[in-house]
Every structure is written in C-alpha cells, then in structure tokens.
Amino acid sequence: MKCPGDDKATTDSSRAGNEDHDDEFEMRWFYVSMGPGFVVGFWAVFGPLIINRSWRRAYFRFLDEIKDRVMVVITVNVARLQKKCKGERRQHGT
C-alpha cells in the first residue's frame, strides 16, 4: 500500500545526494582558486612596493606614524588606569 508522501521521499533523497556532490565540487574549486588568489593578491600589494622606491618609503613612513599613534594611545591609557587605581587605593586605605 502506498502513502501519499512516499514518492516525494525518494526524489528528495536523490536530490540531496546530488546537492552534496555539487557542494563538494564547489568546495574543491574554492580551495584550488585560493592559491592563485593569494599569490595575485600578495604581489598586487607588495610588487609595487618592491619596484617603486617612493611608494615604499611613503608606505613605511605611514606604518611608522601609525605605530607611533598606537603607542601614544596605549601609553596615555595605561597612565590613566594607573592614576585611577592609585586614587582608588587612597580612598579605600583611609
């Protein structure tokens, strides 16, 4: 005896197997394309820096300025935190 949903179950399971195969195929190509994509992206950024001296100097000057700004922010925040902790110790100590 056949139930009303029996035909749908067989087609759904065959469709699920086909989707798994498609997903596997897509993932394989995703990983295959990662290598050339990384190489192209790497050389798109670092190639001009190797070739063009003025760009290289500007880039490293920019990185140096960013490093200095981050160090100033860290130093100021650490000093603020230390000052705040000393103030709390004095309040609790008396």
TrEMBL record:
Domain of life: Eukaryota
Region ranges (Disordered): 1-20
Gene Ontology CC terms: membrane
Record keyword Membrane present: yes
Basic and acidic residues composition bias: residue spans: 1-10
Membrane-spanning residues: 29-51
Annotated localization: Membrane
Coiled-coil region: none
Membrane topology: Single-pass type I membrane protein
Keywords: Glycoprotein, Membrane, Receptor, Signal, Transmembrane, Transmembrane helix
UniProt keyword Glycoprotein present: yes
PANTHER family with a match to the protein in the record: LRR RECEPTOR-LIKE KINASE, LRR RECEPTOR-LIKE SERINE_THREONINE-PROTEIN KINASE GSO1
The protein's name in its UniProt record: Uncharacterized protein
